[in-house]
Design brief:
The structure is a homodimer of 333-residue chains.
Chain A (H helix, E strand, L loop, with lengths): L4 H8 L3 H9 L6 H14 L5 H8 L4 E6 L5 H16 L3 E6 L4 H13 L4 E4 L6 H9 L4 E4 L9 E5 L1 H14 L5 E5 L5 H16 L4 E5 L5 H13 L8 E4 L2 H14 L9 E3 L16 E3 L2 H16 L8 E4 L2 E3 L7
Parallel strand pairs in A: 1-2, 1-3, 3-4, 4-5, 5-11, 6-7, 6-8, 8-9
Antiparallel strand pairs in A: 10-12
Helix pairs in contact in A: 1-2, 1-3, 5-12, 8-9, 10-11
Chain B binds a DNA duplex (30 and 30 nucleotides) through helix 2 and helix 4.
Chain lengths: 333, 333
DNA sequence: ATTCAAAGTTGAAACGATTCAATTAGGCAC
DNA sequence: GTGCCTAATTGAATCGTTTCAACTTTGAAT
């Protein structure tokens, strides 16, 4: 059915080895031969079979990237950063969406291992160190993204979520907010827990209490539900500032509040999100948020993965990027 | 290095054929043997090598999806729809981002062919029928998404962009707009051209002229640039309604106009977008737009691809989905 | 004329799973 | 005990590429 390198060799009157050389190391092949082979390939419509190449090579040139939530632009940017850097190493990136489901995460991990990917970048729900360690012991390097590994045995690129959370609440306090609520979850997600810890630290040093609303996920829909509850609260219980653990959540809350029409943002309620997705600045009220440089996380992760694959001596490293508070209208009062 | 099926066979005291059967057709293998093989696999940490499987099988179980712009949530939803449906056929979906670059599109197409994917879903910049036909002749089924094939030789799932464009301008006319501008591009992109044709038709039947502003791409940044020019126009030249060919563009325009502060939306300027991305409803002024059901496009495309791969008699079909006008505040005046 | 190196070329041996015709074993009936 | 059927198992051949040691040719140096 399909045209193989053998067919090309026969038609061009050379051996298979020569065709292979023509494709992979043209300098080894005489110009005339090269030309003849090129024409034959064109004429027969030969296309390399990657499965055979990979089988021979042992490992693929593709990196598997497993993201938590494919619908979050934060991960789209992270993926883009990874792709650009991977290009420079001659690698490609396969993006897979775990859709916040730990089981799907496991299936994808297995899929990537069966494909003998060059390595895996993963931002897991909860780090299942055991599974990841086994994977690595069998020869697939792993780098954690957007998350630190507690036990320092894996490379990781993360953002200092504690600092981010602290910045947000400090800013709210500076602006005169007294009743601050943190919204996000689930709290077993490391990033969320860290942001909360940072927020708590800032609240404590200002002698304020922090209300915590734990959510199941962090989507626009979930935010809308929270927002609808919020506007129904009596004035003395209602917070005057909401720190949402990501922008999707913040936008949802904002939408519900504005739709209701009773409260003004930021007058009655300040809102700050997290991630600085492109749509934060185009929101009903431009959203204050914490910028994480997802593209930088992605590109750095590829670099770490590459070092680890090369067995460099200091290959295992935990990098922490400092986040940046972006103040827009939603918290300016 | 890596554990192969041969190692498992030796350790378990059976032949390679039996191990293979245990994995692929357990009913053929005696329960005791099955158990022993399972234990050996666990003990040795054996993981199937997908490259070898594929080489033997000839084709992979993965569908390649090439999207125009990975940053557009419209395509994220389309991909999700495709993934869900593919699951049911036992297929998986590889998403690749052409990033609006025809050359990258070509490279990705070749990459997918080298991987002998089950089939390709593509939303090309401009259909290069010749390339796609060759690809198909060599055995890779192709389905066009979000675009019709003019010559009916390819299956496609598209949205009736002409109708969508018509709806938008009709709605603007109904609301009393007299000077309507169409913003989008490049016009060689079929979808954009169709939306414009529909808009023109509606404008003509209302005896209005349509101003056309052709853009190079359709991102938020591009929209902002247009918006900044718009607010500087003298009142008698300025349009009273803008139809942007996608939501990103519309959101960018809206942001620039609001930031400038001179014009009110929709009072002075009505804006309508296209796609109904999740952020259209959370915008500064909730954005009127045209809903396309991207998930439906994705899932339907997978179905068409599957039929074509099965060589079903009526496999080549062009499906056209009707879009729906979603009216929000940005065009209500 | 002889020697030697460099440049091209060859073809068989992997890589690891699947397939399938052939073989063996086990059970049952007579 | 013999024959027969089914169930289980075997192992060589295959997929298409890359690799590499071995071989041939060419041309320059002596």
């Amino acid at each position: 059915m399909s045209v193989s390198i053998r067919d090309v060799a026969r038609e061009a009157g050379v051996s298979v080895g020569t065709v292979s050389n023509a494709l992979n190391d043209p300098d080894r092949v005489a110009p005339g031969t090269l030309q003849r082979i090129a024409e034959t390939i064109e004429r027969l419509g030969f296309v390399r079979n990657d499965a055979a190449r990979q089988l021979r090579a042992g490992r693929s040139k593709a990196v598997g990237l497993i993201v938590l939530d494919g619908a979050n632009p934060f991960f789209a940017e992270l993926a883009l950063g990874a792709e650009r850097r991977a290009d420079e190493f001659g690698l490609s990136v396969l993006v897979a969406n775990a859709d916040e489901d730990p089981q799907r995460e496991r299936i994808l991990l297995n899929l990537f291992e069966e494909q003998r990917v060059f390595g895996v970048l993963i931002s897991p729900l909860v780090v299942d160190v055991e599974t990841l360690r086994k994977l690595r012991d069998r020869g697939t390097p792993v780098v954690l993204v957007d998350l630190t590994s507690e036990d320092k045995s894996f490379s990781s690129v993360s953002v200092d979520d504690f600092a981010g959370g602290k910045f947000v609440v400090q800013h709210m306090v500076d602006r005169g907010c007294r009743k601050i609520a943190f919204v996000g979850g689930p709290l077993i997600r490391n990033q969320v827990a860290e942001r909360l810890s940072g927020a708590r630290a800032a609240a404590e040093s200002a002698d304020l209490e922090l209300t915590v609303v734990e959510t199941l996920g962090m989507t626009v829909d979930e935010g809308r539900a929270i927002g609808e509850k919020l506007v129904k609260m009596p004035k003395d219980q209602r917070p005057d500032a909401v720190f949402a653990a990501n922008d999707l959540l913040a936008l949802g809350i904002m939408q519900a509040v504005i739709l209701d029409g009773q409260l003004s943002i930021p007058g009655d309620l300040a809102i700050v999100g997290y991630d600085d997705i492109p749509f934060a600045s185009t929101a009903i009220v431009p959203l204050s948020t914490v910028r994480q440089s997802p593209a930088l996380i992605g590109s750095t992760a590829i670099e770490l993965l590459y070092s680890e694959a090369q067995n460099e001596s200091d290959a295992i490293r935990q990098l922490v990027i400092q986040p940046e508070l972006v103040i827009r209208e939603s918290s300016l009062r």
